[in-house]
Amino acid sequence: VQKNPAEPEFHQAVKEVLESLRVVVEANEEKFRKDALLERLVEPERQFKFRVPWVDDKGQVQVNTGYRVQFNSAIGPYKGGLRLHPSVNLGIIKFLGFEQIFKNSLTGLPIGGGKGGSDFDPKGKSDREVMAFCQSFMTELCKYIGADTDVPAGDIGTGAREIGYMFGQYKRIRGVYEGVLTGKGLSYGGSLARTEATGYGLLYLTKEILKLNGKDIKGMTAAVSGSGNVAIYAIQKAHQLGAKVVTCSDSTGWIYDPEGIDVALLKDIKEVRRARLTEYKKAKPGAEYHEGKGVWSVKVDLALPCATQNELQLEDAKQLVENGCIMVAEGANMPTTMEATEYLQEKGVIFAPGKAANAGGVATSALEMSQNSERLSWSFDEVDEKLQGIMASIANNISDAAKKYGFEGNYVVGANIAGFEKVVDAMNAQGIV
Ligand code: NDP
C-alpha cells in the first residue's frame, strides 16, 4: 500500500490472490522468500503511461491518458484487453493485469498477462471522434506491442469498431500485417466465435461446475447484470442451455422481464442503436424498467454479474441468499467484493471467480492468435468446440486444485492455486528476471 498508494482495486486483487496462496507458499516458504517470488509477481515487468491528444468534432483538442501494463511474460507474450472508460486509472489497469496473469495461465494456452486502456469515454462520441482517439492512442501504443510480444484485445468500451481503427493505425505505422490485436473483424483476421466467447464460456463453466455439484442448469432462472458484450452472449447461451435469464442492466438502470430477456431486441438496442435500456421497455411493455441498481433483488437460482468491478456487494449477496440463489459465476472481472464473496461461500453458495469463469474470452483470443500465425480461419463449430473443452478443463482443474490443498468446493482458492502453479514454475525455470 505504501509503495503503490491510491490503487485500491489493485490491492484488493492482490490480497484476494495471496490469501488463497497461503497454503502453497507456507509449504515452500524458504524458497519463496529467498527468490522473492511473490515480490516479483506483484511488480509489473513494465508499465507505460502516455498522453493521447485528439481533436473533437468542434475542432477542440482533447487530452486523455493511455496505459499499458505488461505484467508477466513467464508463460507467453503479454495478453489482455484495453479498457476505455472514464473511471480508468493505473490502479484499475494493474488490478486487471494482475488477474489476467492467472486467468491466462488457467486457459492452458501460452499467454502472459497484461492490460491497458484509457480514461476516454466512447459514449456519445461520433465515429470520427472515436477514430481520432483510437489512432492517437495507437500511435504511441504501437511502439510497445507486436504479435510475439504483447497482443491487446477488447474490454469495456473497446469493441469491434475500436479494434478496427486501432488495427488500421498499427498497420499504417509499423507496416506489418500481423495478429497484433484480437477481437478483430472477420474480414481482417478475426476469429469466429470470439465475440460470443466470454459469455458462452461463462455458461459452459457454470454448467460444468453445477454438474460437479450434482445439479443441472436446465430449468434454472438467472439474473445477469450488464448489457454489453459479455452479458448479451451469456444470456443467449443460458437460454440455449435451457435456463431463463430475467434481468439485464446498464449504468443507468435495469430490466426485469419475467418472460426471459429477448436477446435479439437487446442486441439491436446495444450493438446497433447504441441506445439505453429504456428502449427495451418501449418495445416490450410486459417488462419492467427501474432506474439505478437492482438486478440482485430478483429471486433467481443463478447470479451472473457481467458489468464491472465491485458491482455485487454484501447487501446484494444477502438478498441473493435470502432468495435461494445457489450459484454466482463472475462474467465480469472482480464484480463481487471480498466481503460479498466470503459471505456467499459461508452460506454454501457455489462461487465461480472471474479468472476462471470469464477466461473463455482470452482463451478464444489465443485461438485467434493461432489462426493468424497459421494464416487460416477455423469454422465457428471448431472454435466453439475448443472453447467448450477449455472451459470444462478449467472447471476440473480448479476443482482438483482446491481438493488437493484441502479446500474442496472452494473454487476461488482452486483457481488462484491452479493459475499460480504454472506461472511460478515457469518463473523459477527462467531464473531471477
Ligand atoms: P461492454 O462495454 O461491452 O459492457 C459493459 C456493460 O457493463 C455495459 O452494459 C455497461 O453499461 C455496464 N457497465 C460498465 N461500467 C459500469 C459501471 N461503472 N457501473 C454500471 N454499469 C457499468 O464490456 P464487456 O461486456 O466487454 O465487459 C464487461 C466485464 O467483463 C468487464 O469487467 C470486463 O473486464 C469483463 N471481461 C470482458 C471480456 C470480453 O471478452 N469482452 C473478457 C473477460 C472479462 P453502459 O453501457 O451504460 O456503460
Describe the structure concisely:
With 433 residues, the protein is α/β, with parallel strands linked by helices. It contains 16 helices and twelve strands.
Q: In CATH, what is the class of the domain at 196-357? A: Alpha Beta
How many helices? The count is 16
As a percent range, the share of strand residues is 15-25%
Kindly state the percentage of residues in helix: 40-55%
Low-pLDDT residue spans: none
* Termini separation: 23 Å
Report the average pLDDT across residues: 97
Radius of gyration: 21 Å
Q: From the coordinates shown, what is the CATH architecture of the domain at 196-357?
A: 3-Layer(aba) Sandwich
Biggest sheet: strands side by side, in what order? 9-8-7-6-10-11-12
What binds here, in terms of ligands, is: NADPH dihydro-nicotinamide-adenine-dinucleotide phosphate
* Computed structural class: alpha/beta
Shape: globular
CATH topology of the domain at 196-357: Rossmann fold
CATH homology-level superfamily of the domain at 196-357: NAD(P)-binding Rossmann-like Domain
Q: Secondary-structure element sequence?
A: HHHEEEHEHEHHEHEEHHEEHEHEHHHH
Number of strands: 12
- Please give the largest β-sheet: 7 strands, mixed
Structure description:
This protein has 433 residues and is an alpha/beta fold. Among the domains are: 44-183, 3-Layer(aba) Sandwich (Rossmann fold), CATH 3.40.50; 196-357, NAD(P)-binding Rossmann-like Domain (Rossmann fold), CATH 3.40.50. Helices cover 48% and strands 16% of the residues. The protein contains 16 helices and twelve strands. The chain has helices at 8-27, 29-34, 37-41, 90-106, 127-141, 160-174, 194-212, 229-240, 263-272, 278-283, 314-322, 338-346, 354-357, 359-374, 380-404, 411-429, and strands at 46-55, 61-72, 78-84, 112-118, 150-153, 221-225, 244-249, 253-256, 288-291, 302-305, 327-329, 350-352. The strands form two sheets. The chain has a seven-stranded mixed beta sheet with strand order 9-8-7-6-10-11-12, with helices on both faces. It has a five-stranded mixed beta sheet with strand order 1-2-4-3-5, sandwiched between helices. Strand 7 and strand 8 (253-256) form a beta hairpin. Helix 4 (90-106) packs across helix 16, helix 11 (314-322) packs parallel to helix 12 and helix 14 (359-374) packs across helix 15. The mean pLDDT is 97. The site of NADPH dihydro-nicotinamide-adenine-dinucleotide phosphate (NDP) has 21 residues, from helix 8. NADPH dihydro-nicotinamide-adenine-dinucleotide phosphate is lined by residues 154-157, 198, 226-231, 250-251, 306-308, 331-333, 358, 361.
